[in-house]
Each structure stands twice: as structure tokens, then as C-alpha cells.
Prior knowledge:
Blueprint: H1 30-54, E1 58-63, E2 66-71, H2 72-106
Protein name: Lipopolysaccharide assembly protein A domain-containing protein
Keywords: Cell membrane, Membrane, Transmembrane, Transmembrane helix
Region (Disordered): 1-25
Amino acid sequence: MSNDLHQPAETFPEPPVTELSDSPAARHTRTGAAWFGICLAAVVLVFLIVFMLQNTDSVEVTFLWMHGNLPLALALLVASVGTAIATMIVGAARIIQLRRQARRQRH
């Protein structure tokens, strides 16, 4: 009789373990990031549409010398887009500042 069949389980060779990061399907790619971004944007837009449909009451809005009536959802959307633009401007200024600083340190 051969001893191969009576070996304890610990002595059998372990099967090779492949990590997910070795698999081409698990690598982060630009296409994968774009797909995720599009899916996330679609979900956000669905929530935004539902929000706008539920908040159609008109409100009085005053900004500087301008006065008018807008649907509540539109007024909030304009305010949030304005805030996002201001944030992007500050972020872009900071990125430019850091790039100039990095260029000075290289030379």
C-alpha cells in the first residue's frame, strides 16, 4: 500500500491563492472609474428629479437688486450650483498655487 493516501491533511500542498488584485477584472481603470462616475451621477440625478418634483411651490427670491418668484427646488438648485462653482474656483486656485510651488522646488 502507498502512504500517499494516508498522509495527514496538513501535508498536502495548498492550492495556489490568487488575489483579486492580480485579476485583470479587479484592476482600477479609467473606464471603470468613468462607469462608476456615470452610475453615481445617474443616481444623484434621479434623487434631484424627485426633489424638484416634490418642491414645486413658488417662493419669493431677492438677490441684490433682483426680485422674483421661483419654484423652491429651482431656487435651491441655483444656490447649490453657485456654491459648487465658488468651491471649484477656490480649489483651482489652490491647485495652481501648489503646482507653482512644486515647479520652484524642482528648479
